[in-house]
Amino acid sequence: MSLDRKALRDIAKMKTNAERERYGKTLSGCALYMLKNRLMCDVSFKVGPEQRVIGAHRFILATRSPVFYTMFEGSIPETDNIVISDVDADTFNFFLRWIYSDNIEVSSENVRKMLYISEKYLFYGGKDACENFLKKSVSTSDSVGALQTSIDFHLLDLQSASLKYIQQNPSKCLDNEKGFNIAKECMELILESEEFNWTETQLCKFAMKWANNKCKSLNKDPSGENKRELLESLLYLIRFPLVDKHYFTNEITSDGLLSDSEIINIYQAYFGKDNKTFLTKERSKHEEYEIKTTLAAHTKHRQQDGRYSLETRSGLVYCNRKPSPTRWPNRWPNS
């Protein structure tokens, strides 16, 4: 009889632990428990190429996503076994856990997939989390990838931040294999920039390397004609009248990239004649780039009244410390 009582106590204890596991959580924790154990699911999805069946709860999905709400409550509601073929099952399961818990974990491995599914179902919390994650990668060599993602998913803040970083650090971001493989939309944004910390010759060389690489990826000869066909309107975003004359003469004029009349117009622009085909306005440089370039080019300085003055082409610039090519203040007070 005593054994029976002990067994009953053990059963009661097990029941209590199971109930605590199921009910002793936060609301999101309980919802996740219901999802994980497929309790009271009232809608199912067939997901991915293998059409794996995944259950969920209409109320929660409709609460978090206007797309799901319309799917279930629209004029032609979908009832069950809803087919989702453009997302794999693992991604969809991860997405559901996001919706149920708000515990959003984004990584470089899943960010594009989660951006896609968050945008598809207008899950704003997921999209914001992905954009914030990508903004942290802007100040790295992956800023090119962030720029491409911003274009693909219409993330204007991310586009602005990543483009600005590339404009300020072009050698770090673009002078590598990833840079030479950027999409045409990215190349257009770069060449449209009015501020860029490269000379026009550097930008032109980069554009030619990019066009060469694109031709090779299409199994085309990287001839001037093929590069022109590939560049299309991008060609006229390169400010050839500002390109170094020797580079232009030796590398561009003999390539077949430009027509004879365009070449003549560019040479005329070198000597001051207006050019209506290619822009002649120089791109501005970021402030710190200007200071660094000035310090590298001008080393003459003298101390006067406790301040240092630096001789430049535009006159004297004053600072409170000795000018150094590797260290400079963000702003120098003028006299």
From TrEMBL:
Coiled coil: none annotated. Residues 41-108 form the BTB domain. SUPFAM superfamilies: POZ domain. It holds the Pfam family BACK. It comes from the Eukaryota. PROSITE patterns: BTB. PANTHER family: BTB (POZ) DOMAIN-CONTAINING 2B-RELATED, BTB/POZ DOMAIN-CONTAINING. This is BTBD1_2. It comes from Mytilus coruscus. The lineage of its organism: Eukaryota, Metazoa, Spiralia, Lophotrochozoa, Mollusca.
